[in-house]
Amino acid sequence: MVIKWFLLVLILTPWALKPICVRAEEPQNFTRAEDVIYGRKFGTALTLDVFTPKENAKGLAAVFIISGGWTSGHEFVSHEGFASWLASGYTCFAVVHGSQPKYTIPEVIQDIHRAIRFIRFHANDYGVDPNRIALAGSSAGGHLALTIGMSGTAGDANAKDPVERESSRVQAVACFFGPTDFLNYGQTGRDFEMALQEELAPFKAPFDFTEWDIKSGRYVLITDKEKKLEIAKQISPITHVTEDDPPTYIIHGDKDPIVPIQQSESMKAALEAVKVPVVLDIRKGQGHGWEGWLDDLGLFAEWFDQHLQKAK
């Protein structure tokens, strides 16, 4: 019997650190390219896996960010998490980012921008439409999906690297229980440092923001409160909401002890205010993850079907 270890993590730990991690024997209805290098950081390779259905592929890309607590690793990737997407004809990209405690959230965000640019640049190689890319994640991965969804940018036309000339914008977003506002976490005026003393206490490392110090010739910890709050603003998806953002679907339990339901409610209100299509699917009585979580990825596929077909 296959042990669904990712589900045990969701039940036994609050943050869903390993969102997809099942090592069963892989079926043969898709091909898998492992450890594709989409970028390098300080000499370290950044990788993604590509799952391509052998039948009924419809040329649409669905990207899932492998992240929980801003921890990421190739060992957490499995075909099991993408079964419904593959069955729906999506080419699936599992993106691994630079993991905490080595890297902070602003650095991780840049990895995901890079991954989307890479996928778009190589769209023809993977048989997908570069103008129809969907992005998803859970928990910290949900935060990253929302952040990129709201803040994707055009490429640098003058970049030497052709990948960097591509846009990092996506055409649809879906996520589970992701943080959205680190200046108002759970309630108005309660910033991330307050949350780090309580529900976010196990995840302090990715919030240890640094800056380059010319005098010492090294990165130093930022201690200035105003600087930290400005960074917190920049890494909050809600602060990037504009009328041209992609349609967004969010699933969140109303008893979540780690990411307050208020985070998703505020995000929904912000998107509605600028008339961006948004759905908040609230799971009554559920916490930070629930049994059957994997099955809900099928709802994401339905959301992507609905909105990627309209993308241009």
Describe this structure in words.
This protein is α/β, with parallel strands linked by helices. The protein has one domain (about 5-310): Alpha/Beta hydrolase fold, catalytic domain (Rossmann fold, 3-Layer(aba) Sandwich). About 25% of the residues lie in helices and about 20% in strands. The protein is built from 9 helices and 10 strands. It has helices at about 5-10, 85, 105-120, 125, 140-150, 190-195, 225-235, 260-275, 295-310; strands at about 30-40, 45-55, 60-65, 90-95, 135-140, 170-175, 210-215, 220, 250-255, 280-285.
The tally of helices reads: 9
Q: Which value, in Å, is the CA radius of gyration?
A: 18 Å
In terms of DSSP E residues, the strand content is: 15-25%
Helix content: 25-40%
Tally of individual domains? 1
The major β-sheet equals: 8 strands, mixed
Secondary-structure-based class equals alpha/beta
Shape: globular
Unreliable stretches, pLDDT < 50, 5 or more residues?
1-24
Provide a concise account of the structure shown.
By secondary structure, the protein is of the alpha/beta class. 27% of the residues lie in helices and 21% in strands.
Topology of helices and strands:
Blueprint: H1 5-12, E1 30-41, E2 44-53, E3 60-66, H2 83-87, E4 90-96, H3 105-121, H4 123-126, E5 133-138, H5 140-151, E6 172-176, H6 192-195, E7 210-213, E8 218-221, H7 225-234, E9 248-253, H8 261-273, E10 278-283, H9 297-308
Parallel strand pairs: 3-4, 3-5, 5-6, 6-9, 9-10
Antiparallel strand pairs: 1-2, 2-4, 7-8
